[in-house]
Amino acid sequence: MVRRILPQKRHRSREMALQLLYSLDSRRGLTPEQALDLFPEDEDPEVQGYVRELVVGAWESRGDIDNLIREHVTGWRPERMLAVDRAALRLAVFEGVLAKMTPVPVVISEAVELAKTFGAEDSGKFVNGVLGRIVRAACPAGGAREPENE
Length: 150
Known about the structure:
Blueprint: H1 7-26, H2 32-36, H3 45-60, H4 62-72, H5 83-98, H6 104-118, H7 123-138
Helix pairs in contact: 1-3, 1-5, 3-5, 4-5, 4-7, 5-6, 5-7, 6-7
């Protein structure tokens, strides 16, 4: 289900989703529901709902997403990437390519900013390059389509 929420709430949702996906990836055995329990109790309900969609969707789709990453990255298996970069890629591919929740250019821009904020010095460039290759293959029109149901 695509939710209509303000851009700043979507940004906050993506920040939280990235951190929760990182936690899921780093702490073996942690489930999405357990990760979502790490939410601040006073967080905006719209943000919580969007984060839930992103985290559950990206985590459940991680096998397909990781296969896409493998197809478009030479010399880097997803399991060898920085966990933050992997989380940013999974989040962006789920939201923009698989679920089509948000226009792809917006998703790429957000993923690059998140990678710059939370990742290593070159994480933004790396994430941008990988997403560019995935989008060119998955969205021949350049990914500028509108999200479904909006």
